[in-house]
């Protein structure tokens, strides 16, 4: 087993097809098949189930996959550590919540891009759960997620603090009346969204259970649904006042212990911190260290 075997294995696992893996690796399909078979023989296990549409990773393959990616990441980090001269440059792949991207990152990105033109920055959005998994799986170097985050393999730096509120259609009703209305619905992003879980906790503490859940793909869709009276949602107050606009919306405050939420920048503890990542984190945490909600 060598690094080339692991690279072939990772590519096949990711694309689920020997031919597509061969095209991505710029080789022939027979070479990919031979590499995988040799790796399976070396380990004494079957790594893929073959089927008509391609391949699927076996249980043994699932065990090997994170180790393979860790080895490749470690070698890539070692190369960066000895070749980079300290100036931020090259690719920087990060993740962020959509709310954080909408609220905070535009000025940070503008400043960062101007100061470090040699960095090729890409940002993927997702739920907190998805982003944590991406960082752990070496899919991104770091991510901005809803805190607190407690994981033995992750280091978390608080960056932003916001106040959450329940958002409903503006119709003059109190929060108690809104939550007590028959058929109340919560409008949320997909499972794994941290605000979704917090809203469920807030409702449960008020004795509101059995609420119907409607999932939406974007924040804009949630805003439109709330303004139309389809249901309620939970969002940072500043997202509503500064990005969405308050037209047609009512913001219902929560108790301090329920309202406060921190955004953390997370990264793997053992991972190499590139000059580009270090510069980006410095831009995020520049005075004041935690940017307060306004």
From TrEMBL:
Keywords: DNA-binding, Transcription, Transcription regulation. Gene3D superfamilies: 3.40.190.290, Winged helix-like DNA-binding domain superfamily/Winged helix DNA-binding domain (1.10.10.10). One of its GO terms (molecular function) is transcription cis-regulatory region binding. It comes from the Bacteria. InterPro entries: LysR_HTH_N, LysR_subst-bd, WH-like_DNA-bd_sf, WH_DNA-bd_sf. Residues 1-58 form the HTH lysR-type domain. Belongs to the LysR transcriptional regulatory family. PANTHER family: HTH-TYPE TRANSCRIPTIONAL REGULATOR, HTH-TYPE TRANSCRIPTIONAL REGULATOR GLTR. This is LysR family transcriptional regulator. It comes from Ruegeria pomeroyi.
């Amino acid at each position: 087993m060598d690094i080339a075997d692991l690279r072939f294995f990772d590519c096949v696992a990711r694309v689920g097809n020997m031919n597509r893996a061969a095209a991505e690796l710029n080789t022939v399909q027979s070479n990919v098949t031979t590499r995988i078979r040799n790796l399976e023989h070396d380990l004494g296990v079957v790594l893929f189930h073959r089927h008509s549409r391609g391949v699927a990773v076996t249980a043994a393959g699932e065990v090997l996959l994170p180790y393979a990616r860790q080895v490749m990441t470690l070698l890539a980090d070692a190369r960066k550590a000895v070749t980079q001269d300290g100036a931020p440059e090259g690719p920087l792949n990060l993740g962020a919540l959509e709310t954080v991207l909408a609220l905070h990152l535009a000025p940070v990105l503008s400043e960062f891009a101007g100061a470090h033109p040699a960095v090729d920055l890409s940002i993927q959005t997702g739920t907190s759960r998805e982003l944590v998994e991406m960082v752990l799986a070496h899919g991104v170097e770091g991510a901005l997620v809803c805190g607190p985050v407690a994981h033995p393999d992750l280091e978390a730096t608080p960056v932003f603090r916001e106040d959450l509120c329940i958002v409903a259609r503006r119709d003059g009703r109190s929060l108690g009346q809104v939550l007590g209305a028959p058929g109340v619905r919560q409008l949320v992003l997909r499972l794994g969204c941290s605000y979704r879980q917090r809203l469920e906790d807030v409702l449960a503490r008020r004795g509101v259970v059995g609420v119907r859940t409607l999932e939406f793909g974007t924040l804009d869709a949630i805003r439109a649904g709330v303004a139309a009276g389809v249901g309620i949602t939970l969002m940072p107050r500043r997202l509503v006042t500064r990005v969405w606009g308050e037209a047609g919306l009512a913001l219902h405050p929560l108790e301090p212990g329920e309202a406060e939420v921190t955004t953390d920048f997370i990264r793997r503890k053992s991972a190499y911190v590139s000059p580009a990542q270090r510069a980006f984190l410095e831009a995020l945490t520049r005075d004041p260290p935690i940017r307060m909600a306004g």
